[in-house]
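Structure first, sequence second, as always.
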């Protein structure tokens, strides 16, 4: 500051070239003496390992992403910080891009991811957002990550964020994604609109709330031979309707943990491995046939009943006569009996007499 003042006050006295000299000297002095901001220093409350390019920042109590990450960082690990919101360009240091390839943000209490939060990380390969409490994820949260291959979101999504996930995971922004891990998020279905526009090799959906996978999705999966879907620890509903999924499990070998999928409903099949079900357990045709056959039996019985009633009705004259005859016969019989009874009204006497 003072140097420029000096230069100003001497404007009239010194020739132009001298003034320039003074300016350059001052600038050089400034650069040399300025409190080093060379993008090389380790940020406060972080540990830096320059050999491996790793910066690890733990439990800073900081609610901020460190803004002064060294240029050489290839792996940034933040753990146990209270970040709460990832803002646009949260990892842009001074508006410049970083060559980072791995970013781990698990256990940071992140609740919201704003649009373009990961701007400035064009070479990012792996992003771990596991074990946060995400309430909202912008549809443009993952824009600007053309190289992203692995995205981990285990135990991280609250229901509101889970509902926004399929928008955020649009293929347009994540076309190189190979591995997507979504364990422990109470998901009820595959949170992707399509699968064929990604380059997915592994989709991990273990420990969620998936009861079944419909035939549309199964058809989609069959077409993507390279994809592997992990599905253990989901509450499968093993009734008719699981059919397409059941045959996909048996047929496709696209589910590496198929042997560990268990039924949770109906009660009678709880704990039974899905693979051990019989074809007829999951076949709606059999179930329907059974229902149909019961209905049919009912109808036949009803028909027989109706025919019987009709026969009765048509023969009502004959039946009346017949009933009369019976009644007459009975009365005759009774009369005879009555007469006899009156005759030997004292059987003892009769016996004595005999
Ligand atoms: C995290 O930060 C928020 C505000 O940003 C605050 O309300 C909350 O108490 C903090 N939690 C912890 C565990 O520090
Ligand atoms: C970083 O930004 C500060 C001001 O915010 C600026 O003084 C400095 O020159 C910038 N450094 C780089 C390397 O862009
Ligand atoms: C969850 O994410 C971690 C990375 O933080 C990963 O190592 C792990 O295999 C993932 N999957 C499960 C099922 O926990
Ligand atoms: C399964 O997910 C729930 C959250 O949905 C989590 O609390 C639990 O720890 C997970 N279980 C395992 C074995 O990871
Ligand atoms: C799964 O099927 C539903 C319709 O049942 C559809 O909306 C969704 O896009 C499908 N997802 C995939 C990944 O095929
Ligand atoms: C494969 O699935 C079809 C139904 O889509 C089924 O008819 C066929 O029997 C299955 N093949 C095997 C080997 O399970």
């Amino acid at each position: 500051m003072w140097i420029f003042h000096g230069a100003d006050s001497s404007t009239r006295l010194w020739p132009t070239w001298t003034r320039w000299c003074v300016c350059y000297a001052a600038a050089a002095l400034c650069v040399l003496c300025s409190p080093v901001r060379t993008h090389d220093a380790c940020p406060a409350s972080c540990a830096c390992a320059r050999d491996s390019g790793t910066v690890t920042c733990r439990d800073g109590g900081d609610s901020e992403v460190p803004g002064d990450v060294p240029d050489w960082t290839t792996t940034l690990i933040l753990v146990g910080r209270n970040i709460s919101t990832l803002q646009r360009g949260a990892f842009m240091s001074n508006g410049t891009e970083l060559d980072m390839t791995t970013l781990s943000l698990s256990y940071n209490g992140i609740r919201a991811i704003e649009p373009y939060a990961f701007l400035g990380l064009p070479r990012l390969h792996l992003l771990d957002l596991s074990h946060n409490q995400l309430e909202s994820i912008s549809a443009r949260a993952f824009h600007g990550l053309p190289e992203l291959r692995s995205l981990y979101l285990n135990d991280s999504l609250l229901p509101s964020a889970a509902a926004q996930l399929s928008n955020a995971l649009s293929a347009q922004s994540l076309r190189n994604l190979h591995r997507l891990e979504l364990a422990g998020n109470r998901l009820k279905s595959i949170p992707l609109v399509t699968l064929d526009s990604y380059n997915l090799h592994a989709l991990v959906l273990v420990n969620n709330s998936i009861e079944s996978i419909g035939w549309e999705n199964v058809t989609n999966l069959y077409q993507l031979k390279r994809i592997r879907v992990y599905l253990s620890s989901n509450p499968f509903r093993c009734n008719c309707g699981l059919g397409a999924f059941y045959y996909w499990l048996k047929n496709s070998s696209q589910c590496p943990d198929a042997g560990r999928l268990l039924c949770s409903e109906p009660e009678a099949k709880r704990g039974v491995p899905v693979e051990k079900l019989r074809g007829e357990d999951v076949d709606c045709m059999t179930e329907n046939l059974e229902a149909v056959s019961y209905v049919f039996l009912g109808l036949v019985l009803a028909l027989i009943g109706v025919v019987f009633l009709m026969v009765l009705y048509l023969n009502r004259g004959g039946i009346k006569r017949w009933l009369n005859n019976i009644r007459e016969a009975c009365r005759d019989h009774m009369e005879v009996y009555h007469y006899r009874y009156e005759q030997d009204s004292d059987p003892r006497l009769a016996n004595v007499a005999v």
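Margin note: Residues 284-314 form the longest helix (31 residues).
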